[in-house]
Input
Amino acid sequence: MRYSIFSLLGHALAGNRRWTPAWRDAAPKAGYDIVIVGGGGHGLATAYYLARMHGITNVAVIEKGWIGSGNVGRNTTIIRSNYLLPGNVPFYEWSLKLWEGLEQELNYNAMVSQRGTLNLFHSDSQRDAFVRRGNSMRLHGVDAELLDVPALRRLVPFVDFDNARFPIRGGLLQRRGGTVRHDAVAWGYARAADRLGVDVIQNCEVTGIRVERGRAVGVETSRGYIAAGKLGLACAGNSSRVASMAGLRLPIESHVLQAFVSEALKPVIPCVITFGAGHFYVSQSDKGGLVFGGDIDGYNSYAQRGNLPTVEDVCEGGMALMPSLGRVRLLRSWGGVMDMSMDGSPIIDRTPVDQLYLNAGWCYGGFKATPASGWCFAHLLAKDGPHPLAAAYRLDRFAAGRVVDEKGQGPHPNRH
Amino acid sequence: MNKAATPKQLGRLAAGGLVDRGQPLSFSFDGRSLEGYAGDTLASALVANQVRLVGRSFKYHRPRGLLSAGGEEPNALVELRGGARREPNTRATVAELFDGLEAVSQNRWPSLRFDVLAANRLLGPLFAAGFYYKTFMWPAAFWEKVYEPLIRRAAGLGRIATGPDPDTYEKAFAFCDVLVVGSGPAGLMAALSAARAGARVLLAEDDFRFGGRLLAERRPVGDRPGHVWADEVVAELKSMPNVRLLRRTCVFASYDHGVFAAVERVNDHLATPPEFEPRQRLWRIVSRRAVVAAGAIERPLLFGDNDRPGVMLAGAARAYANRYAALAGRRVVVSTDNDDAWTTAFDLAAAGATIAAVVDSRESPPVSAGAGLPWMSGAVVRALGGRSLEAVDVRTAQGGAHRIDCDLLAMSGGWTPTLHLTSHQGARPRWDERLAAFVADQLPSGMAVAGAANGERSTAEALAAGARAGMAAVEAVGLRARAADLPSVPPEPTAQRALWRMSGSAGKSFVDFQNDVTTSDIELAEREGYRSPEHMKRYTTLGMATDQGKTAGVNGLALLAERAGQPIGRIGTTTFRAPFAPVAIGALAGPHCGAEFKPVRLPAAHRWAVEQGAVLVETGAWLRAAYFPRSGEKDWLEAMTREVTTTRSAVGVCDVSTLGKIDLQGGDAAEFLERLYVNGWKTLAIGRARYGLMLREDGIVMDDGTVSRLGEQRYLVTTTTANAGSVFQHMQFCHQVLWPELDVQFVSVSDQWAQFSIAGPRARDLLRAVVDSRHDLSSEAFPYMAAADVRLADGTRARLFRISFSGEFAYELAVPAAAGERTVRWLMQAGAALGVAAYGLEALGTMRIEKGHVAGNELNGQTTAYDLGLGRMLSASKDFIGAVMARRGALTDPGRPRLVGLAPVDRAARIGAGAHFVAAGASPTAANDQGFMTSAAFSPTLGHWIGLGLLAGGPERLGEQVLAVDLLRARSTLVEVRAPVFVDPAGDRLRV
Amino acid sequence: MRIPCPHCGPRGHEEFAYHGDAAPIRPDPAAAEAERAFGEYVYLRDNPAGLHRELWYHALGCLTWLIVERDTRTHAIRGVAEARANHAQGQAAQ
Output
């Protein structure tokens, strides 16, 4: 049933008793043309675009818990396409364009709010790096502006300009960047995919990948064996664990990223702000909480929680940026598993195992990529060749030396 | 101040309570002047003043009163203080009353009594859970322009402070054997047992007074009032040197390996902190064992309009009466599914209230109950009244209906153990059907739970459990514990049969009070397939308010379980996450804020530079001189121009102390260098320096510097300022992990040596004035790239290197850091006659660009030696870090962007770093992007702007013209591609 | 986390710099297929959910490189040894 103010009114008058499940909690069939492992944003988006753009509907998304229980269920909601390298910019820009029409496409209000993402810089060399990036964006036709301090004082007057250890010298603004209501993305894609015939299967954990003569043929799961014509992995932080079931080692380390939300406040922060003299970024949700975060903890972890020094560092960064935060209270922290890749960029590619396809390595930046990742992974699964936008995201790029390293930090996952 | 003869504190009992009637306090709420006593919370003082309306709910703006007497409070959120000290969302139930306290209610306009947005309730069914996902999508442009701004204005609770936080925050560490969280009967016994055994004990209590629920009960402990017994135990603990007592301290998180975080509200109970004292203190506690005795939180019952002001948790109603001598109502109904709420009925009756009825959902009341109190078997189905409770509708077990007038409904749906700390590390609690509660199942190593937090509800059980836990903890750390005598307590019935909710209730039954989540919202979520607790939580927002579901979580799960036809234990629970209670961000940040955010590193000659009027600039953590303006110079460009010109024509002095310096020694020192750098070191003679390039193992350039050989087995390695730490760490990795068999030792001496660059045609003259005359500085004796230990004329040890970053005839002179300031003063004084000028980073940067020396902008972690024109340096005959990977085709492809120099064709034009290159005449698109400008500067030597950049196939395109497009700054400049050396390409000046 | 440094005792992990998996051994650059071996050494990781032998450097302490055996699911630390000593053992074992 279509969502609209009219259906909302109609149902309200009937006491809201006639609503039906947003998606079928499907039971697994014996086999599918395509099985996608991972019911997060990327897996669900992939299934949707397979059905929508390629007419492939004999598809299952298999999720070990409840859909959207990973990144898309607890991230800091930012979308943007302010990347530097030619391998990245068109991909993230396409994702942003998909975000812009997503609610109408899915008939689910994901509250895509293009309120702007602002990156502050504090030194000449940082400015030079941001100018390089901003010009790269503009050459790709993506919006980017350089703001001076007077312009910043008007945009974000609550930021510390006058007592800062590292005075702000300017900022790079992408007005079309912003935030999205993350849970709604998973639910919206699930509902839309389900309507097109995709099976969304929850509480179904993959315990093995059956490979016969170098070809992936299906998955063993906690709900039985499911045959697959093609098998796509979209498991984010669990990519190595699942890929190892097919004998693969990946250029990925799984790390914990913590993120935080404050008590709800009346509106104060109009855009997404990234501090340049410490790893800290913040935005304000529509409910009023400040959503913020910083660095990963820095060590391999599957525990989905981090430790206190990171919390302190993040809050220090927050106070350095915005000293009026002192009396705002941290309400909740959470932690997830990030698939940190060896160059900080993702992998959307076939693997050495036939019919086994990989979508991984998103580090902590996968949310904004959700639509384009689904789009490109669906293309790969349907056509067996990379989508032009994802041409740089090859698995063999590391060995060959064609890394896509935005930060220049090299083969150290915890520095990306 | 309102001095009219309004009777004061009409809700205060004439006697009793733990408030200090000798210390009256004045405060205001929503502008109304009121009075209370020391020992009150803001909430108890409001009760004593019969203020019933304390807030408006988040979505429906329903009138709300106090639900609780503790930190779990969802309704009474106020803005405390004002201006830059404003604290939004402060729970009135934990705010200690102080004289002059000013509190303002939130989320209502224009006033609490009359709130315009209460009209929301008329659209109630429309605003059911998740409604916003189904609408606001059309027209598409309206989201950011119309819908979202309205939603954002209506949302949020309190307002942020108006300026930077003026208070300070401290951080501290505490180490102990046993951490006890909570000072109720279980916690006190645990702390006492452990302390008497000699363990180092830390007892943390969130309240401003020790004793936990003993403060709120009339039941005697050991034949005296509970709070008296508690005070005696505290006094004994205080007398012991191995015990630290922290009150006003909330242990809010449990981390790995016995680490806990706690926040102490050092001075929140005063209007402002005393001078030099912090507002709050963050404790990092490292404990070998922990006993969580954090008590339990009462659950509301679910029935129609259970959020009316005047409907309160039963335990809270008696806490207000017993501890604060404040009566929340005169005509009371108690509604319960357990024994505990009967105590409220007795206590309120003893305080002088009329108990209209005890409505117990079970068939028969507890044995000790009954005498004198009217009771019935049944449950409240609706609370009636507008802004205040007036009556309740009751349905009896037999099906009868009664309406009972009352102004206070004390309700109890059971108790939920406060076991958050046991779950922060991922362990899930298990459902105990008998207790109708979640209890800790698997515990983190070293942690125990005791008392009500473990379902051990009665005082006697809690005392015993606490003592056992304390003893077990000390035995685990190797001490002997003696069983403590347990004080006697009268018997206490603790039976319960969980009711959860009363079916057939009309009106809204609230589950999450703060986020206005009702039972029908949960039913709707389940109907739409959001069935797992995590989906239900996210869809309805239950548990996501500032109270994080403390009074809502279990009720919500019970409803899900009921709809699913499953036992609660099978439904599961949502994850418990730190912090247990909201913590000020300022406390987590601590003292490192503002100008103190990071340490400031000052080079040795800093004071001298400041005296010279240098303009300073942050370079990482360092504060370095950017330029030294002289009077009459209008900007940095003029100063820099003079500094460069002076250096290139006379002599200049620059403080380069910040470079990394590493003293490397040992029999295998040269071999070690061979493996670290791309080029060779075995031929480096004693007394010579050589430029070195270091790669990462993936073949990308990591750092560059010079290495000087000062002795047979003695080398001095330098690194760039930015990479001093990381190169040192890398060397340690190579030495300890890769090649521990090599005989090398090294130590960082970056801070031990001050170093100055002395550059220009008169540099030798200047050096001869300060270096001891025994050293021959002639070109033959001390040629280009010579390096040696020397003495200055005044005997100071020094090192002299004839190396040049500026491209001029130059030296670098190193002296021990303590001698740095006097040495630079000496150099400037001796150089006055030579026309010496101090030069800073601007001039330094310009000169190195003029000479084409790569620096940070070029060493950006993406460039190879070949990209930088240094490919020849890579030795083909030895192994070094990065050797194999650097050879890969993709890294040596000549089509890669490679280092060139750029000069604007129009000499008057300005160019800047960050511009991208496209072929002349090509349109500025990504497809035509051929590289970018890495560095740029105005060259005083050439009289125009110059740049360095990375251009595809650059060295093969010298003489070509390309466009440097800077779309951000709306600038597009035609530039000529040149060799990346603008001044003295042959290097003649170096070899004078 | 608290890392039990053999020299300094248990210290907060924030005093240390983390390198990653200790298992990869730097290949022989002179061997045939060295480029492929180095590719795996530099880029591929087991990334286990479970026991992980990993390298930490006590940057704010004794400057010792340590091999820590830690469970990546629970963060429980099983053992700590000096990397240098471990390498010597590894060499001897070969």
Summary: Residues 136 and 143 of chain B are 7 Å apart (CA to CA). Confidence is low (pLDDT under 50) at residues 1-5 of chain B. Chain B touches chain C at residues 255-259, 286, 425-426, 445, 697-698, 725, 729, 732-733, 736-738, 740-741, 879, 883-885, 887-888 (CB under 8 Å).
